[in-house]
Amino acid sequence: SGPASAYGVIGKTEEAYFKMINDQGGINGRKINCISYDDAYSPPKTVEQTRKLIESDEVLLIFNALGTPTQTAVQKYHNAKKVPQLFLATGASKWNDPKDFPWTMGFQPSYRVEARIFGKYILKAKPDAKVVIFYANDDFGKDYLVGLKEVLDKSSVKIVAEESYETTEPSIDSHIVKLKDTGADVFVNISTPKFAAQAIKKIAELGWKPMHVMTDVSISIGAVMKPAGLDASEGVLSAGYLKDASDPQWKNDEGMKKFMAFAEKYLPGANLSDANLVYGYAAAQTMVQVLKQAGDNLTRENVMKQAASLKDFAPDTLIPGIRINTSATDFAPVEQLKMM
């Protein structure tokens, strides 16, 4: 629940995936017991729920917990307790730090990597662009800002304004009006689904037509484009690494067929155009792979060792050619993206 409630479906998808695995006999004869609590995207609540999972539920590990500010609040605790904080649902670059935080690992491409890809794309498409950046005033937004500036600061492209918002704001319309008045022709949108939809809608209402580049965390037809209006969302650019279940180009794709069969049986009536479903599926499939590799040695140490030994693993819902590779010095599972 809370300001990032659009992501709640990720956890439901993962629970459903583990149920499917259990129905098939589990992993190496063991069933997965998945316990999930709601932290409402509030760091103090995250601390409380994480302690409960580790100290009273005595879980083996915590998997795909969501949010940069929320997971930052428990990173030191996880590492002091030596409990895997695994495949976090946040693209902050700080999760790839095996030297200082050997019990923490991210999952999706880092925001900084994606921001650099955006920067290079803008440079190529509009070398004399006037760029405005709209971003969340937290670690998530600031990470993108760093990546963009690494590419654009010493280039022909001019960043004419940066405007941040707080996740507690009910509406971000005034920020968009302010950014339009700069006369910029490129709008970089670094916001979570609710605010991304508001921005797309307001830009259309104002009749402003900049090149619109948006973070992949909000590139969901179901959670963002439909609420914003499909006409208003036309032409929005992003970088992605997941197949879109509502895109007919994947209709005969083997991996997508498996996903569709799973969704039909275990998530009946789910909104397949919501990218969070294919994301949750990919993360859960990767978690299962790690547990398979761990065999009968289900210690927390061995779980981290196996998570750091993934070789060319290709979950069903990742774009062909994108593979997961990790090592003892590389805690960034997905490091490739495609502009789309």
TrEMBL record:
Coiled coil region boundaries: none
Record bears the keyword Signal: yes
Record has Nucleotide-binding as a keyword: no
Segments crossing the lipid bilayer: none
Domain Leucine-binding protein, residue spans: 2-336
InterPro entries membership: Leu-bd, Peripla_BP_I
Superkingdom of origin organism: Bacteria
Keyword vocabulary terms for this entry: Signal
Record-stated family: Belongs to the leucine-binding protein family.
Name assigned to this protein: Branched-chain amino acid ABC transporter substrate-binding protein
Organism, as annotated: Methylobacterium variabile
